[in-house]
Design brief:
Layout: E1 4-9, H1 16-27, E2 36-41, H2 46-56, E3 61-64, E4 78-83, E5 86-91, H3 103-111, E6 116-118, E7 125-130, E8 133-138, E9 151-157, E10 164-170, E11 176-179
Parallel strand pairs: 1-2, 2-3, 5-6, 6-8
Antiparallel strand pairs: 1-9, 4-5, 7-8, 9-10, 10-11
Amino acid sequence: MDGKKLLVFSDSHGERTVLKAVFNWAKELLPPNGTICAAACCGDSLSDISKCAEASGFYSDWKLVCGNNDYGVHAPEAAVFDFADHKFFLCHGHRHGSYHGYHTLLAAANNNEADIALFGHSHVPFYKVIDGVTLINPGSIGRPRSRIGATFAVIECPEGQPVIVEFFGIGNEYKIKKVKI
């Protein structure tokens, strides 16, 4: 059930070797051979992206927001975009109370008529549907705070079907493998 795929990552915090490993892995999945059609960064990675994308040869349709540690970088704190058959609300999460529940994040997604909300900041992967909104935190690729370690996500959007969310871990020697959260 192949559909368009969106690479989602967050919180590299200067760990460029890890970000390059993710981009090297993802570039093999770009069209025409693959289905990753865009990449979304949930913040705290913006100063790393251009150097890592250039070094790895990963060029994408970028969806970007700044986080609370993205200094001197010009990007919005939140964004809304359409991808496949879905509307996404993208933020870092520090202004949307991600440590204290999801009410503010859900309200922002609903106010923007988004059916999927992407956020980072907690450095812990998360996936849950609440009141019809799919909430996804890819975790952190640079400074993880979960037992799984460094993670990112890929969201597949099959036409007319619910999204399929897969999480990937970055292991020893920067090997990428699917993980269960």
